[in-house]
UniProtKB/TrEMBL annotation:
Annotated keywords: Phosphoprotein
Pfam families hit by this protein: HATPase_c
Name of the protein in its database record: histidine kinase
Cross-referenced CDD domains: CAP_ED, HisKA
Length: 459
């Protein structure tokens, strides 16, 4: 049987008067549990303060274990705690011995055992602080996990494009001497050469909307017919390049008139050489630009070049960076994302890294909730009363049932299956928003779920 000496081994109990510890022994029941015993499961009522006298126990199940206790340790309900039901499985790891005090005795303890109550309240304060720190760390790791796979895929695409086009450019440049020989055999005046150059580079500089597949196919057919009529070799390949830059048979009629039938094949061969080079260089430039955008988004998301203090934050930067980094998941789920944030949106005072955790959670959850086809997510920011910035995240998923809406911001609550999420997201979101003196609200019905975040504008 447990005695006062056993209780003195618990954190803080060494300062509690012996008569108060004897009160605890008189009102508590001692229990024995075998290794593997499940004390309670998610949703079960939690009605006891538990003092682990011997053995070990764990909150959470693999691979998402949250806390591991080794005797002596204090768990369960504490004075003034609002904990009523479990959100994680609690398992005894080894044969264990516990002292259990039912919550019905906590009111009497608070009125008769001041030092004992104060020690247990301090335990609750420490528990909240430790849970919060661990939850924040878990959420940062979860966010990295959500982003890393997609980011690797996002970077792989432009890198592969650069390597592929660089090899193609190298191969293409080796064919340039043959084009040069053909040019050397042409008899063109300086005026004709200038006309060809101006005609070509005017087309290259003319940035217009790309053709549809049907439009391009029709244009290629017209160009192929024209080239065949003029007996220009490799007509289909040449027509493909010319159509890429929206050359028409009228353009070819113009250049034929300028250089004559005897020079048209050589001129168009030289033109094609330039078009292929231009296309490869443009593709390499676009891929490099995509990589630069991703690196910029990573830098903005992690704020590698800034301190960790409070600062003026432009919400649009963090939200757009997060959308970019989640781009692979957005495309794989076929979700259409619309970001409607005015350019003149005021800044807020805050911690950019924390806010990016908010955007990651809300956007990631919205993508998961979206239907497999026709999914949409609309992100909108606006100002009200010149004091607050409101940001809404609206998806067209199935919605959140009313009974779940009441629990959605509870710590560790999740509707996802094992391995599908940490269950920490919305609790962390609410904590971060409150840290910024703001609020978060949920409105949900089938086909429309909106999270609204309100934060004050920077002073």
């Amino acid at each position: 049987m447990a005695n006062v000496t056993d209780l003195k081994a618990f954190p803080g109990f060494e300062l509690v008067p012996d008569e108060q510890l004897r009160w605890l022994l008189d009102h508590a029941d001692e229990q024995q549990y075998a290794a593997g015993y499940v004390l309670h499961r998610p949703g079960d009522s939690i009605d006891h303060l538990r003092l682990l006298l011997a053995g070990e126990m764990t909150i959470g199940a693999e691979p998402d274990e949250l806390l591991h206790y080794t005797a002596p340790a204090i768990t369960g309900v504490l004075p003034f705690s609002r904990l009523t039901e479990g959100v994680q499985v609690v398992t005894v790891d080894t044969d264990a011995r516990m002292l259990e005090l039912h919550r019905d005795h906590l009111r009497e303890m608070a009125t008769t055992c001041y030092e004992l109550t104060a020690t247990l309240v301090q335990q609750m304060t420490d528990r909240v602080r430790n849970f919060t720190q661990q939850a924040q760390q878990e959420e940062k790791l979860a966010s990295l996990g959500r982003l890393s796979a997609g980011l690797a895929h996002e970077l792989n695409n432009p890198v592969s494009a650069i390597v592929r086009n660089a090899d193609a450019l190298r191969t293409h440049m080796r064919a340039t001497p043959e084009r040069f020989k053909a040019i050397m055999h042409m008899n063109l005046t300086d005026e004709q050469t200038d006309v060809v150059n101006e005609w070509l580079f005017e087309k290259l500089d003319n940035k217009t909307a790309p053709l549809t597949m049907l439009e391009r196919s029709g244009l290629e057919d017209d160009l192929t017919d024209w080239l065949d009529d003029q007996r220009v070799p490799d007509g289909p390949d040449l027509a493909n390049s010319l159509a890429e830059f929206r050359f028409t048979d009228a353009d070819l009629d113009f250049i034929l008139e300028q250089v004559g039938p005897e020079n048209i094949a050589g001129v168009l061969g030289w033109v094609n050489n330039n078009l292929v080079t231009e296309k490869l260089v443009v593709d390499i430039g676009e891929a490099s630009g995509r990589m630069a955008t991703l690196v910029s988004s990573i830098k903005s998301y992690t704020h590698m070049d800034r301190g960790g203090g409070r600062e003026a934050v432009a919400l649009a930067d963090g939200i757009r960076s997060t959308v970019t980094l989640l781009g692979h998941k957005i495309r794989s789920k076929n979700v259409t994302v619309t970001v409607d944030i005015p350019d003149d949106l005021p800044t807020i005072q805050g911690w950019p890294g924390e806010l990016n955790q908010v955007w990651t959670n809300l956007i990631d959850n919205a993508i998961d909730a979206a239907p497999d086809s026709g999914g949409t997510l609309t992100i909108r920011s606006y100002v009200e009363r010149d004091q607050f910035v409101y940001t809404t995240f609206t998806d067209n998923g199935a919605g959140i049932p009313d009974d779940i809406q009441k629990k959605i911001f509870e710590p560790f609550f999740t509707t996802k299956g094992i391995g599908k999420g940490s269950g920490l997201g919305l609790d962390i979101v609410q904590g971060v928003v409150r840290h910024h003196n703001g609020s978060i609200k949920l409105a949900s019905k089938p086909g429309e779920t909106t999270f609204t975040i309100c934060v004050p504008i920077s002073e």
